[in-house]
Amino acid sequence: MITAERKPMEELTECMKPFGRILLVGCNECVTVCAAGGRKEVGLLSSALQMHFMKENKPFEVKELTLERQCDPEYVEELAPHINQVDAVLSMACGCGVQEIARRYKEKPVFPAVNTKFMGASESQGVWAERCAGCGDCVLGITGGVCPIARCSKQLFNGPCGGSTNGKCEIDSSVDCAWQLIWDRLKALGKVDLYEENIAAKDWRTGRGGGPRKIIREDLAS
Amino acid sequence: MSFQKRLSSGEFVVLAEMNTPKGVDTSQFVADARRIKGRVDAVIVPDMDNGVMRMSALAGGVLMHQLGLESIIHVYCRDRNRMALQGDLLAAYALGIQNIVVVCGEDMKNADHHNAKPVNDLSELELLGAIRTLEAGSDLSGIELNGAPQFTTGCTMAPWRDEKGFEQELELTGRKVKAGAEFVVTPPVFDLQRFVPFAEQTRQLGIPVIPTVFLIKSVGVARYIATNEPAAGMTEEIIQRIRKASDREMECVRIAAEAISAIKESVQGVRLVTLGWEHRLPAILDLAGL
């Protein structure tokens, strides 16, 4: 999932200061799962903003809405009946959702309420960790299901570096060394030959190196 | 007189551009430079121009310095992060390079290593600011330098496609000036009639403007420019003039020399780009009376 964290309250109150009526929009997908921008967080942020401006004797109205998916034009259309009744939109979705609202409602200022962080997985209750860098040419099949781009601090393709100690990364002893994980997994699979073979320099065109990316499925595109 | 002194005293500066070799054989590069020694104020050394991996501009600049020629090296953000950029700037100054031009690197997808990962840690404006910071005696982390460099720093104005594009480019160049650029290198001049209003409009930048005179090598090159760069002002008259000439190569040299003579009074310098025909630089300078 795409993970996110709510922005600091001071930043949000500062960017909402010029407005009197806002639409606070949550998203039912990834940001709900990582507890950053779902219906519950919309309610909490709405109350916090109203209390903040009440203390300042500033009139401030919040209309709360949570869409099924903010990255989907079909659901973003549901904002249409409300958009002219507000001065601005505060989105609690990831950057994809914020941009979809900005694209659809060109005349309305839109602000992000969360910082989009990474594509990750839940490690335990309340803990999410980065797992995928979206490089566009997945190598997990030869690295034992552990991504060296997303999980190695140096993004090494032929690791580990000299900073791997007792299975931990030199940047932080709480971070697993990705190449230790790769080695352990390949060994368990009986595939250490994959480790011994050097991986060639990566072609980054499939990642951000090739500029903004797009997928066109001819069979689905209309 | 140094490039910086000529620039600040309002003298006309003549700059010739020369690419470093793709390899370690510098003999041609050095021979081309020797031919124009004493006739140009500085040699501009691009860094991986057009996205072609070649010897770095830093080495090219040092080679010029060793030959007794002043150089102006390109710096850009596609291939180096802020640490590498600062490190190379300090190295350049320590090795005798005093002039730099901040340029926009060719997009990686058009480079000859299109599978490489672009860096783009800083952009041109931030890099100009970084140079000012180094000159003030500290790095981008605020740590004091043991000896600060002093550069004459320029920027470029990218080619535009229409009037709106020109206005945007002019505005962006104005921001580069505010960020510390002390001169600006502008795109090639072909249509001399259109150059007059351009020179007027760029005067508002308040820094020396150095347009490019590009040596057209053939009718094919002229037609390519006319088709692909409509705002460059390539005229049918120029194309026909080259086509009808008995010595087309010499005609191209004449056209370049005439362009220099025509713009000389309205701007503060010229950048000569010959793209592989550096052996023709002396002839262009002769005909332009430089």
Secondary-structure map:
The complex is a heterodimer of chains A (222) and B (290).
Chain A: E1 2-6, H1 9-16, E2 21-27, H2 30-33, H3 39-55, E3 61-67, H4 73-76, H5 80-83, E4 88-91, H6 95-104, E5 110-112, E6 114-124, E7 127-132, H7 148-151, E8 168-169, E9 172-176, H8 178-189, H9 192-196
Parallel strand pairs in A: 2-3, 2-4, 4-5
Antiparallel strand pairs in A: 1-6, 6-7, 8-9
Chain B: H1 3-8, E1 13-17, H2 27-36, E2 42-45, H3 57-66, E3 71-75, H4 82-94, E4 99-102, H5 124-135, E5 152-156, H6 163-179, E6 183-188, H7 192-202, E7 209-214, H8 219-228, H9 236-244, H10 248-263, E8 269-273, H11 281-287
Parallel strand pairs in B: 1-2, 1-8, 2-3, 3-4, 4-5, 5-6, 6-7, 7-8
Please outline what is shown here.
The complex is a heterodimer of chains A (222) and B (290). Chain A is built from 9 helices and 9 strands.
Overview of the molecule:
The complex is a heterodimer of chains A (222) and B (290). Chain A has two domains: 2-118, Response regulator (Rossmann fold), CATH 3.40.50; 134-210, no CATH class. Chain A is built from nine helices and nine strands. Chain A has helices spanning 9-16, 30-33, 39-55, 73-76, 80-83, 95-104, 148-151, 178-189, 192-196; strands at residues 2-6, 21-27, 61-67, 88-91, 110-112, 114-124, 127-132, 168-169, 172-176. The longest helix of chain A has 17 residues, at 39-55. Chain B is globular and about 60 Å long. Chain B is α/β, with parallel strands linked by helices. In chain B, helix 4 packs across helix 5 (124-135), helix 8 runs antiparallel to helix 9 (236-244) and helix 9 runs antiparallel to helix 10. Chain B contains eleven helices and eight strands. The mean pLDDT of chain B is 96. Chain A binds chain B through residues 201-205, 207-211, and chain B through 107-109, 114-118.
